[in-house]
From TrEMBL:
GO terms for cellular component: cytoplasm. The gene is hisZ. The lineage of its organism: Bacteria, Pseudomonadati, Pseudomonadota, Betaproteobacteria, Rhodocyclales. It is found in: Cytoplasm. Heteromultimer composed of HisG and HisZ subunits. NCBIfam families: PRK12292.1-1, PRK12421.1. It comes from Candidatus Dechloromonas phosphorivorans. This is ATP phosphoribosyltransferase regulatory subunit. Its main location: cytoplasm. Pathway: Amino-acid biosynthesis; L-histidine biosynthesis; L-histidine from 5-phospho-alpha-D-ribose 1-diphosphate: step 1/9.
Length: 384
């Protein structure tokens, strides 16, 4: 059974691979039209670089191995975002705003969900050097427009702010060892569990933490949060950011979820997740992660998003499969060879049969080159 692939690892066969590649080109061209420059970080790096500021979750998802040249521990990247932050901070050194995009495979030691691949094709875009809400809105709009361009409808974009929980936890004196437990309960919206976990937290912060899972829905959530949460600076500042973001983009399908804190140890501002109809999990995740480049010498403001192109390809319309033109072998026919070359220059797929080959197994050929008199013409292939 040597031919079996590991669990949660799969081949992309011709039709799926063609769809993924078509989407890759469309999305990268879309990013490029907005001024985002394409980068290609390496698959392997020293583990310290890959996990910088990324938190415990990414550490668990990263395959590790020993470099035979240096003896140091290396990792197979599980996320390209930290690599993009390294490139911005350490290699490009732009004084102003930097816009980067990327698309390549990453590898996960464990799947993110029960249906996820352990080898996602991660595509994303990042903005460095701007700390304002305008940058957060720019990447959210870029995401929404990108999904619309490839006809993947977005039903809602959940937004939240990591600063709300951080301000409450700090003001409440929540012990570091308790943070993880409370975060998990918030993510699960487990109110009974929160009541038990926060029993020793002083008022009014105990009640505020227990209210967070119920603060989700439309923009009215912001008014409810302002009325129900303590008016400490971190909370009021985060709510002001969210209010400003919603006001600037009334056309986007925003919803609020103040307990959705995925990437809490990595993000430090606005976070967002895009959802599609009839799809159980977020199709794209993003948010602000200021300071990720600090270890590389420059603590820059940063915000961006990423998604798995394999999953996006499954959600989008299949499109028409490529059709090809079948041509006879042209090794001794210069005129035929020139005609085949011209068709390929025009964007046609031409399959030239090899000696002894009588049919094409793939791609599907719906036309053929036929010699009529002295001229090669294209004819439809009739199905018998």
């Amino acid at each position: 059974m040597n031919w079996l692939l590991p669990e949660y690892i799969a081949d992309a066969l011709p039709n799926e691979a063609e769809r993924i590649e078509r989407l890759r080109r469309t999305l990268l061209d879309h990013f490029r039209s907005h001024g985002f420059e394409f980068v290609m970080p390496p698959m392997l790096e020293y583990i310290e670089s890959l996990l910088t500021g990324a938190g415990h979750d990414l550490n668990l998802r990263t395959f590790k191995l020993v470099d035979q040249l240096s003896g140091r521990t290396m990792g197979v990247r599980a996320d390209i975002t930290p690599q993009a932050a390294r490139i911005d901070a350490h290699l490009l050194n732009h004084r102003g705003v930097t816009r980067l995009c990327y698309c390549d495979s990453v590898l996960h030691a464990m799947p993110a969900t029960i249906s996820a691949s352990r080898e996602p094709v991660q595509i994303g875009a990042e903005v460095y050097g701007h700390a304002g809400i305008a940058a957060d809105l720019a990447v959210i709009r870029l995401l929404a427009e990108a999904l619309a361009k490839i006809k993947v409808p977005v039903s809602r974009i959940d937004i939240g702010h990591v600063g709300i929980f951080r301000a409450l936890a700090e003001a409440a004196g929540l012990p570091r060892e308790s943070e993880g437990t409370v975060l998990d309960l918030l993510q699960a919206k487990d109110i009974p569990g929160l009541i038990e976990a926060c029993a020793e937290v002083p008022a009014p912060f105990r009640e505020a933490l227990q209210r967070l899972p119920q603060l989700y829905g439309g923009v009215e959530v912001l008014d409810r949060a302002a009325a129900e949460l303590p008016a400490i600076s971190g909370v009021t500042s985060a709510l002001a950011d969210l209010r400003h973001l919603v006001a600037l983009a009334a056309d986007l399908p925003f919803s609020l979820d103040l307990s959705d804190l995925r990437g809490y140890h990595y993000h430090n501002g606005v976070v967002f997740a895009a959802y599609c109809p009839d799809y159980p999990v977020a199709i794209a995740l993003g948010g602000r992660y200021d300071g990720a480049g600090k270890v590389f010498g420059r603590a820059r403001p940063a915000t961006g998003f990423s998604m798995d192109l394999r999953e996006v390809a499954r959600l989008g319309p299949a499109g028409k499969p490529s059709r090809a033109i079948l041509a006879p072998h042209a090794s001794r026919d210069g005129k035929l060879a020139a005609h085949i070359a011209a068709l390929r220059e025009q964007g046609e797929i031409v399959v030239e049969l090899l000696p002894g080959e009588t049919a094409c197994e793939g791609p599907v050929c719906d036309r053929k080159l036929a010699l009529v008199g002295e001229h090669w013409i294209i004819e439809a292939i009739r199905e018998d």
